[in-house]
Every structure is written in C-alpha cells, then in structure tokens.
Amino acid sequence: MPDGTAPEEVRRGDPPADTIFAPATPPGRSGIAVIRLSGPRAREAVEALAGGPLPVHGRALRILRDETGEPLDEALILTFAEGRSFTGEETAEIQGHGSPAAVAAILGALGRQRGLRLAAPGEFAQRALAHGRLDLARIEGLSALLEAETEAQRRQAMRVFQGALGKRAEDWRERLLQAAALTEAMIDFAEEDIPEALPEIARLCGEIAGELEAEARGARLAERLREGFEVAIVGPPNAGKSTLLNRLAGREAALVSDVAGTTRDVIELRMVLDGMPVTLLDTAGLRETADSVERMGGERARARAAAADLRVHLVLPDGPRPAEGPDDIVLRAQADRLAGEGPGISGLTGEGVEALVAEIARRLSARTAALGAGLTARHAHAMAEGAAALREAEALARAGAAPELAGEALRRALAALDALVGRVGTEDILGAIFQRFCIGK
Amino acid sequence: MFHVKQPEGSDFDVVVVGGGHAGTEAAHAAARLGARTALVTLKADAIGTMSCNPAIGGLGKGHLVREVDAMDGVMGRAADAAGIQFRLLNRSKGPAVQGPRTQADRRLYREAVQAMTRACAGLTVIEGEAADLILEGGRAAGLRLADGSAIRARAVVLTTGTFLNGVIHVGDRSRPGGRLGEPPSKALADRLYGLGLPMGRLKTGTPPRLDGRTIAWDRLEMQPGDEDPVMLSFLSEGPVVPQIACGITRTNSVTHAIIRDNLHRSAMYGGHIAGVGPRYCPSIEDKVVRFADKDSHQVFLEPEGLDDDTVYPNGISTSLPAEVQEAYVRSIAGLERAVITQPGYAIEYDYVDPRALTPALALKALPGLFLAGQINGTTGYEEAAAQGLVAGLNAAREAKGEGPVEFSRATSYIGVMIDDLVSRGVSEPYRMFTSRAEFRLSLRADNADQRLTPAAREWGLVGEARWAAFAAKMEALEAARSDLRARRFTARRLHAAGLNLAPDGETRDGLGVLALADAGWEHLAALDPTLVLPAPWVQAQLRREAQYAQYLDRQARDAEALKREEARRLPPDLDYAAIPGLSFELRQKLERLRPATLRHAAQIDGMTPAALLLLAARLKAREAA
C-alpha cells in the first residue's frame, strides 16, 4: 500500500469540494503508469498540463508540460464527466509511460496547482460511497479482492473473520473487566465492605499480559504471511543465480509482480509458493565491481540475505561451503554440467527446481503452523500495547499505589483490546476501513 | 418571591414543574439567565426536601455537586449550610477519586434551599398541581393546573421525580403514590403517555426510619466527621452548625434468618414489583439472597438532624411488611429496643427512556419541553440537581431563542452523565460513579470550578460574587504556578534531599518537583530558601494538579479525539429510509432513537461498522450538497 500523508487529518479538515489525485499503479518502472484525479477541477487540472481543452467525457493523446513549458511525458488522457465516473465526481486519468521520474514530475506539477491535493488512502472509494456509486457490499468485495493475494492469506483471514481472534479477545476482555471491576470497586465502593483485591488484580494483569505478549509474537508472524516471506538466493558470481531466478520466474502462474529495478542492490521476484506469498531475492553481480558505491550496496544485500526467512545457497565444487543453519538450503550449482555430492540444481535444464520449490514451501509452511489468532501488524501492535498497559497496572497494584492510576492503565488495556476487534470509536472504524484501500484504487 | 397563584394567562419564559432537587436547580438556573421563571409545586414548604437519605455528595456524586456549584447552583451551598458531618471519601486515595460528602440536617437543608429560592430574582413559586401541558403549534407552551388555571411559558421543564404512575409497596400492600403522603400526578402522566414516548419502569427502596432515642448509642462504634472538613461549595469556608457522629452497626445471622423466612412477603420477592432496582443499592432482601455467603452487612445509623430524633439506617432498605421490619431491626446490635417511626417501603415508577432526549435534555418529540431528574431514569439528589441545572439553562436559552448548550464527557461529570443517558438509556436507576468518567484524572472535584466556571459565566449562570471569588482564586493559583515554573532544581540536589529519583536525571522546575510521588512543598522550601510559601490551599491545589501531570497529556489527546467525534452530528431530520443498505431493524432503531451524533449511533445495540459507514457516507454527501 503506497503511503499517504497524514490521511486522517487531511480528510477531516478539508472542504468536500476539493480535487484529489494519486497514482493508481504501484511505484516503480512499468509499461504504463496511471494517475487518477477526482473532483470539480479534475479536467481543468489536466488541461493546464496538456495546454488545451479536453473532451468532457472522452479521450485524447497529449504532451504534458509543467509551468515552465518543460515536457514531462506523452500520455493518453481519459476524462469522465460528473455522474459518469467511478467516484461519481468529475474524474480524469493520465496514462503515461511507467517511468518513476515522469510520474513524480506529473504528481509534482499537479500538487502545485491550487485546490488539488494528494488523496488519502481509500479516499476514491470513500467518495464513490458518498456519491452512491459503490455500495458497501461492493466495497468489501473490492477490499477482499485487493488484499487476499494468496490462498494462505485467505485462510488466515477467514480464521480471523470466523472469530478465532474475536474469541481470544473476548476471553481477555472478560478477565480484564474482572480486574477493572475489582479496581473500580475499591474506588467507587470504598464505603462498603469491599475486600482488599490488589494481589488479585496484580495476578490477573500479569496473566493476561503474558498471553497477549505471546499472541503479539504470533501476529507478527502472520504479518510476514501477509507481507510475504523472503527467500534469498546467494552464491558466488556465475553460480547460476540469475538463471535459476529466471527459471523460477518462468514457472506457470508463479509470477505475481516483477519490481526489478527498484534497487541496484537486490532483484526481487514476488511469487506464490503453495499458497504463500514469497519474495525471492537475487543478489547477482554484486562482487563484479570494485566500485565503492557498489560495495556499500553489497553490504546491504548481504544484510538483507542474512535477515531473510530462508537462504538458498548455490555452491560450486571448489567453492567454500556456507555455514548451514535451519534456515539454509544448500544446493550444488549448475548440476547440468558439474557433477558432485548432494542435491543439485540447474536453472538451465530445470533439474532440481521442482524439488527446491517443494522444499521452500515445506519449510515455510512449518512456520505458519505457529500462527496465532492475530492477522496483521495492527493486531500485533494492539496486543503489545495492551500488554504494556497491563504490566503497568500490575506494577501499580503490586506497589499498592493509587488505584485510580491502575484503573487508568486498565482502561488503556481495554481500549487496546477493543481496537483489536474493531469495537472502537466510529472515527477509528471508518478510518481503518477506508485505509484498507490503496491510494487511487 | 413566593406567590400563591398567578392570574390566568400570566406570561413566563420558563415554567418548571417540581420542587425537588432537579426542579430547584432548573428554576434557579433559568432565573440566573434572566428568564422570567415560575416554579410549580404542590407545597411550597416542601421545596428542598430530601426524600431519601440525609446526605449530599459522595463518590462521583460529590463531583456533580461541585460542578453544579461551579456554575453557581444551589445544592453545594445549601448542603454546607445544613452539613452536620463532613467527610472526604477516599481520602487515602488520589484526589481524582476523592468525593466530598456531608450528612445534612433535613430541616436546615430545606430552609437553606427555600431561603435561596426566596432571594432569587425573577423566580416565582406557584403552589398547585400540574394537570396537563399546554401545546401550541406542536410545541409545549405552558402548563394547565388542576384548578383549571393556565401558566403560559416559552419552555417547560418537567422534574416530576417518581410521580409518574408511582406505586408504593409495603410488604404485600400497595397503593398509588409518589413520596409517602403525597398524591401522584396521574393526569400529567397520561399526557406524556399520549405523546407515545418510550417508557420504562424502575423501583427504588427506603429503609425504615428509627427513633434515635431508642437506640443504644453507647454500645455502638461511632464515626465522627473529618478533622479538617472539606466543604461542598467552593464558596464555603467551613461548617456553620454543630457537628455530629454517625453510628455503625451490623446485621447478623439472626437478622438474615428473619428476612429469609419472610421473603415471600416482600413486595419485591413476592412478585408484586415489575420495575428494575439498582444493583449497587440493593435492598436488604437482595443482599441476603444474592450474597448468601456473607453473614453480616454494615449499617450506618445517620441522624437526620440536630433537633430531630429520626435516624436513617443506611444499608437496610426494604419492602417487607412493617412487623417483619421491626423484627429484623431489633435483631441488630444496638437496635434491640429501637422503635420504627416510619416503615421502609419500595416505590415503583415510570421513567421516560432518556434516549428520547437531546443532549440539552429537551424532548425530541416535543419542542419546548425539557425533562430532568428521576423522570429520566436516574437516582440521587446530585444526579437530579445536575440535570436540573442543564435543563433550566437550556430552557432559558430556548426561551431567548438561543441555541442549546451541551456538556462534553471530556470536561465534566455532567457531560458524562447526560451522554450516558441520551446515548445508552438506562436499565437500572442511573447513579454516578467515578468509573463512568474516562477522563477521571482530569475531571476532579477540586478543579470543577476551573473546568466550568468561565463557560458558565459566559452563559450567564455565574453571579458577580462567585465570579470575583473565582478570579481571585485563579490569580493566586497562577501566581504560585508561574513562581514554581521559574525555579530550577537539579536532579542531584533533589536526590540529595532524599527524593526518589536518579541523580543524573533532568533538572526540574518547581511544578516538576511536586509531580514526584514523594515530594512536597517542604522539599521545595528546604531546597530554595527564597521561595515564599503560598497559602495552604494553594499548596494543596498545585500538589493535586502536579500529581497527575504526566497523565494529563495523554488524556488531553484522547479528549481531543472525543471532541472530534462529538462533532459528527446526525441531523435530526435525517431520512434513514432513504439510505439504501440499512437493515430494516437498524433503520427502525435509528428512526426511533434519532441519535444526535455518529458516536451515539455507534452505541446503539446491534449497530454494525457497515451501517455506520453508510451513515458516515450519507453525512459526507449532505455536507457536500
């Protein structure tokens, strides 16, 4: 999801009649990049770049120029009249060449125009909803389509929606309410014969905090499942890493997106293995230059490979053998022409490729077994926040300190749990729902 | 200004029905705003009567009294004039949860309220029975009395307490009635029913009253008031009448056996009462049944006045027959010879579902009509008084053609209470607790004036005397604050002075030193001989403020978020039927409850995020249109 700028504040403070714009395609080099505008000045804004009138509802090919007359890109412009667009507002699309520099220049030129601003995440969908162009069922459908890339993600999402997380949270919440009730009773019913409950409060808080901390770790794992596992292919130059990557990329239906060229240091290849999102990292060519900038890049690439979930090592017969940990798969490189011991692989002939894919899938699947009920980084964050507040309450209760401060900590813990299952203020719910949409989608 | 009757057609801005705690504050608030105000009550000499326990304030309730007082209300000053035993509850805990409370002499309290009412300019008391509302052009336009006379007004405030279809139960006998000995106003109830308002039924109980001369005080544990009494009103200096002690005794297994054996004769357990009672103020029958493992419950013996022998035994309210009451009372230590002067009874009554009200306490279904007090499902003098003030304030503003004033949860307990009432309704008599306030650390009894007096002054609620006193107080506090802000204390010196902090920590200003848990003014004075100590009350107030300083930033952020949510208003004329995708059930609920804000809508039972999204989208579309 591309980054928005302080979306909540932006959305809340602005008059409704402003015009928003955002790239609708992912960043990076691609065949076409689309920038979308919506609002009363959508067409006018593009006309300013195109240097002349555009049809109210139609298409045109134009050279776009900035304020100084400098050409930015040649683009196909689509215009949609008010009431006949996705958002219901006047809308325009700029389909330009997928050069990051050209896209950045066009966005900059738009951003300098009065009455235009970058859209907050989900704002196009929100406007579509507000104008009755999209009903909620379709928004939710869209959201699921956009988000569930792989089968494993879908399964985990179903676990959440079927209530695994809800049940856990409900249980925590119930015990937390007990602790809060004991605390509040000491405060609000001081005149009644209320027993001293501080040890009990401390015990409850400590227990729930421990469980939340464990679940937060599980949720972080789930976040990996959402964001993708990283598998690094490492080995000396000419070991056949790129050939292997190309072979893997050529597997039917394996390719999700190719974001090569985003960095000079590492080539990334997104693919789906056994229902799990996997990003393959190729560190090819790093040692072929003595250039100092390249060397720094090499350091970064090695760090990235070291941090990856799995490493596939291609070794040559006379080369050094890597230290083999549980996250390492060691293969004999260029098996088509070099003989030797142990399993081999060849990107050229495809020998051993299916076995490698199966091995990667097997190892990653084993990890997803440790998944908890949580799904996202947001869940992990809420659990960690809840746990921290509970630890504070526990310490206060043990110290026998002011119960109103323990009560305050418990209140924050409850708020964190409520945020976990979506039982929060309407602003938060709405903001969270709309933020599920990437800018421009 | 007590008047017996006004001539037909006499004109008022605001007419208030009921002379209880809600009615009194409502009438006074309206009159303070300059509205020509009439207070209609059955008996003028019953104004300010405490019909239940003889005490004002307490936990959460003390906060409400202070807030009413901060806006120049009646209750705090009347309680201080009548206070015979002042105690600051939760004294050992933090200032945020301390609640000032006093036992009040019933007669003195009544007299104090009546004296203030007589002295209130623009307020006319009319003795009579409210029979019906006058409606005009779909608005409440006044009141018709039982004798046929009419009082016309631009706004009407109803504070009729438990008078709506009230039924009194003593054991298996029951009869219609409001407070004991007063007739219920059935006709007015019929009018409210005619409006088709959502209603519910609640019950509440009272204990038997005892003759104090028949209690063996010398054998009881006695609880005196505080050494340094904390007053209810910001304007009071100290107690003005002699102070007394209360007695403490306990029920025992014999008491409980008597109650268990006679449960079937209790109005509540005999199935005579349909209303729901409060969980937190259970009858003695309830306590014995629900807490069967406890063989003893505390009973406070509270004298009702200095020259009144009546004693209120707090903790044994009941609806058992009179002879059973006598039997169990006499089983209690110290009460063996006690004489019951008036048996305890339970009262059942109707209330208007407060979700039918706006946050200004106006009835959505009938413009010009405001409701306050027990009629809205609350219990307690303090809750009633606070609502009365809000209703009176808004009724007067309405009469002047000004917009409503609303109280936020972020700045007052009054805001918390009203928000709870109008957004969630009640399922038992609603009583204030400190735990209801999510901004509890900021909403303290000690800073109610700092939170509310300036705004109340703007609205016209605060008179010259209080404003001058408040200004002087703020000046003294600010002078001391800025003095402390200007002084620096290194962590090393503070550590050397024996305070619990790391010697290599940051240098603090004087306020920062007071924020340390174990620091006090004596440390400041010892470390900085140039410091001139301010008045003790200033020292105490700044120490209280500093104690929570580190929590207040977070609460302020949360309060900001809340205020943004409170600002997302749903227009009262929103056409829910025109929103596609809303389920039929939710649409019905929304049409019936007409929540004031999106946040209130979110609190409706069965509300879904999807439906909220639809509402938010509709709001956005309306804003854009």
TrEMBL record, chain A:
Q: Where does GTP bind?
A: 238-243, 257-263, 282-285
GTP-binding found in the keyword field: yes
Annotated K(+) binding lies at N238, S257, V259, T262
Enzyme kind, highest EC tier: hydrolase
List cofactor names only: K(+)
Fill in the subunit field for this protein.
Answer: Homodimer. Heterotetramer of two MnmE and two MnmG subunits.
Record-annotated TrmE-type G domain positions: 228-365
Q: Which GO terms describe its biological process?
A: tRNA methylation; tRNA wobble uridine modification
- Annotated spans, Disordered: 1-24
Its recorded name reads tRNA modification GTPase MnmE
Read off the InterPro entries from this record. G_TrmE, GTP-bd, GTP-bd_TrmE_N, GTPase_MnmE, MnmE_dom2, MnmE_helical, P-loop_NTPase, Small_GTP-bd
Keywords tagged on the record: Cytoplasm, GTP-binding, Hydrolase, Magnesium, Metal-binding, Nucleotide-binding, Potassium, tRNA processing
- Which GO CC terms are listed, alphabetically? cytoplasm
Query: NCBIfam families, from UniProt?
Result: PRK05291.1-3, small_GTP
Family named by the database record: Belongs to the TRAFAC class TrmE-Era-EngA-EngB-Septin-like GTPase superfamily. TrmE GTPase family.
Q: How is the cofactor bound?
A: Binds 1 potassium ion per subunit.
Question: What does the record give as EC number?
Answer: 3.6.-.-
| Sites where the protein binds Mg(2+) | S242, T263
What PROSITE patterns does UniProt report for this protein, alphabetically?
G_TRME
Q: SUPFAM superfamilies from the entry?
A: Folate-binding domain, P-loop containing nucleoside triphosphate hydrolases, TrmE connector domain
Q: Molecular function terms in GO for this entry? A: GTP binding; GTPase activity; metal ion binding
The residues that the entry says bind (6S)-5-formyl-5,6,7,8-tetrahydrofolate are R36, E93, R133, K441
Species name for this entry? Rubellimicrobium thermophilum DSM 16684
Localization: Cytoplasm
| Stated role | Exhibits a very high intrinsic GTPase hydrolysis rate. Involved in the addition of a carboxymethylaminomethyl (cmnm) group at the wobble position (U34) of certain tRNAs, forming tRNA-cmnm(5)s(2)U34.
From TrEMBL, chain B:
The cofactor(s) it depends on are: FAD
Keyword field: Cytoplasm, FAD, Flavoprotein, NAD, tRNA processing
Matching PROSITE patterns, A to Z? Answer: GIDA_1, GIDA_2
Which residues take part in binding FAD? G18, G19, G20, H21, A22, G23
Which positions are annotated as binding NAD(+)? Answer: 277-291
Q: Which Gene Ontology molecular-function terms are recorded?
A: flavin adenine dinucleotide binding
Superkingdom of the organism of origin: Bacteria
Q: Transferase as a keyword?
A: no
Give the tRNA uridine 5-carboxymethylaminomethyl modification enzyme C-terminal subdomain domain ranges.
546-617
The UniProt entry's GO biological process terms, in alphabetical order, are: tRNA methylation; tRNA wobble uridine modification
Kindly give the SMART domains that the UniProt entry links to this protein.
Answer: GIDA_assoc_3
User: A GO CC term?
Assistant: cytosol
Q: Where does this polypeptide localize?
A: Cytoplasm
Biological role: NAD-binding protein involved in the addition of a carboxymethylaminomethyl (cmnm) group at the wobble position (U34) of certain tRNAs, forming tRNA-cmnm(5)s(2)U34.
Q: How does it assemble?
A: Homodimer. Heterotetramer of two MnmE and two MnmG subunits.
Similarity comment: family membership: Belongs to the MnmG family.
- What NCBIfam families does the entry give? mnmG_gidA
Q: Mind telling me what this protein is named?
A: tRNA uridine 5-carboxymethylaminomethyl modification enzyme MnmG
Q: Which gene encodes it?
A: mnmG
